[in-house]
Write the structure tokens for this entry.
Amino acid sequence: MSERKKPWVERTSRTEKAFSILALFCMLLFVADIVPVYEKHPHFAIEYWYGGYALMGAGFVVVLIFAALGWRQLVKRKEDYYDD
Amino acid sequence: MTIDQLPPGLILILGAVLVPFLRGNVRAIYMLLLPALCGWQVWHLTPGEYGVVSLFDYTLVALRVDKLSLVFAYVFTLAAFLAVIYSLHVRDVVQQVAGLGYAGAAICAVFAGDLITLFVFWELTAITSVFLVWATRTERSFRSGMRYLVVQVGSGVLLLSGALVIVNQTGSLTFGHIGIDSIGGQLILLSFGIKAAFPLLNNWLQDAYPEATVTGTVFLSAFTTKLAIYALARGFAGTDMLIWIGAIMAVFPLFYAAIENDLRRALAYILNHQLGFMVVGVGIGTELALNGVAAHAFAHVLYEGMMFMVLGAVLYRAGTAQGSVLGGLYKSMPWTTVFWIVGAASIAGVPLFIGFTTKSMILTAASLEGHWIAWTALVFASVGVFFLAGIKIPYTAFFGPASGKQVREAPVNMWLAMALSSVLCIWIGIDPSRLYAVLPFPVDYVPYTGAHVINQLQLLAFTALGAVILFRCGVYPKSEPGQNLDSDWVYRRLLPAAAHGLVDSLAQARDEVWRWRDRVFDFILERVFHYHGPRGIMARTWAISGAALWVMVLLGGYLLVYYL
């Protein structure tokens, strides 16, 4: 199927654009921490950092994905493992 | 006792008995009227104790109404109504009766003012709900249902045991704060923990829920585990141990959800993880935390139920919920896709959706009490569930490479139930004041502050960015067929293997004993044959003179001994 006939969510140009918008949105949110546009109510050290929540978001999802891939190696068996 | 002193759930339980005698639209209307009538009665209840009866020296309270029981009763009634709409196309009377009876039992249980009444309805939820698993009518669902039933009934037995210990110690059956100081309290905590799917006690949930029928899973997702959360909040608020248990619950199931191919099982793991938030809240035990537990349970019943509805609609139309064979469904099921996105936004706590206004109460309570480990675990869990419900599952089922399955949009009744759930998720998300008004304690909490909103958006946006970058690098836990071992491995593989090993060992020991017995018999027979056989010494023919000589020798010997 040609690129133009594909639904918009499947067009490479659109997914690239969506990724750019996401990156821009992230950048704006990060800037919101540096140029404080809101009043923080921190309780823990990481909440005082610039982009503390951004760091947790990106960091934790990387940890989750790698941990899940490792966990799969450990626990995955064939579909008929229990044979019922 | 008058009829308004009976638990409202009895309307569903007794009303379900008539369902098999009705047909067609009359049955459908009747089934819709039952939760509506139940909801009407719940709405008009005023705090107090009703239906009080004396049994021997003990007092049973069938209907204890307070704000904690009411908020759970509201959402249970609402969930029953939505689930009935969702299942209107079903003609299987077993499912209809079981679903209504199950919802009614759960509503009766949250109004139980004593441990015996709680036990009765606790067990009734188990007995009625198993039929929703068996209604699939496969060998696999039968086995899964049996395991489910054993675990659930076992939980009830522990509850009864704990109740008997407590009544023996205190002389009271009242279901109030219990605590873990006594052995009775510990038994009851274990009972509640099984139903709340604590770590290592959880696998009945992921085992049975995906095996239930399309509509059965929607019923199952609403009641059993939230009844356990209610019971924990009532009996064990402020128990520190629960903070740790909840933190583990919130995190660990996500690793399974990330690698699970069956999307309904993945969602069951996500359900388990959401319970972790509530268990942490119960453990913290402050007014804000308990409000958070009640509010999050309310929200969770709505959006989790809707997400099971969406996957049920996918299973109903596509014939499978296996991620590895799904994809591209947004084209043929656009509304269902939208409903999933609403559910995912709610569960992830996106501002303007219901989860944002409830989950943040528990996180704030953890912050205020300085529980930084639990708080970090809950933030990790928030990231994880956004990745799974907001990115991985929608990509797998709806937006990823098309599977080629040509399917239709969900039936109109399923569509309506999902649409109503979506509206509630957004409506309460935008204006949570009505939900806050029915919480157990006065609410002094504002969810929509600049810090809350921006921090949550930062968390979610960077989660998406991190996941997309990893995806572009080819690091992604894609759905693959397989069986992932969980704690059920203990009773599905280890214990049967140990039992087989024991039986084999006993059989070998028995065979060895039989072998020795045979050897001893053979030896005796051989000796007897040796002496008494045709050639044996005892079988020889002796001359009479020889015999007389031996008799004389024996008598002589006897005389000699006598005189000595």
Observations:
- Strands of chain A lie at 76-77.
- Helices of chain A lie at 12-34, 45-48, 52-75.
- Residues 1-39 of chain A form one domain.
